[in-house]
Amino acid sequence: MTMGQPGDRFPLPAPGAYGKDGTMTCHLTTLELPGGSGTDIHDVTRQAAQAVRDSGVRSGLLTVHVPGSTGAVTTIEYEPGALADLKVLLDKLAPEGAEYAHDLAWRDGNGHSHLRAALMGPSLTVPVVEGSPALGTWQQIIVLDFDNKPRRRRVLLQVMGEAA
């Protein structure tokens, strides 16, 4: 394996360093998270790293995806101040209780939930380097549930790449 340049945060594998026969593997882990009403934020970094280890992938990609139109995935420093700031930002961008065409059509009161999820996005892809997600020191993977009704939120962790 070759290393990256000085100052690179993660060493880069040489082409063909893994999976000598050129085969790729795909591994899927499903999580189910509890949700309340409002903005729930779940740190799934530990589960994502475990899914990568379980997959045996040394070089590839981890995709974290939340099916549904009122959930999202991103990264943040998972600490109370940053989480509070994120909630304040989302409240400013798509406030609960504002008039939304979705709410007028469906009368379910979650128009803000759909907009927040659309802004954040349903998926995140993280490189897998030397068998671990390539995350920064203070970077955690979070799943957000914006719906206004309690539900169980399904999260898919898919790891694809070359195994050792």
Topology:
Elements: E1 25-35, E2 40-43, H1 45-55, E3 57-65, E4 71-76, H2 80-93, H3 101-106, H4 111-120, E5 123-129, E6 132-133, E7 140-145, E8 151-163
Antiparallel strand pairs: 1-8, 2-7, 3-5, 3-8, 4-7, 5-6
Would you mind describing this structure in some detail?
This protein is of the alpha+beta class and 164 residues long. Helices cover 25% and strands 35% of the residues. The chain has four helices and eight strands; from the N terminus they run E-E-H-E-E-H-H-H-E-E-E-E. The chain has a five-stranded antiparallel β-sheet, covered by helices on one side. The protein has a three-stranded antiparallel β-sheet with strand order 2-7-4. The two termini are 12 Å apart. The mean pLDDT is 89.
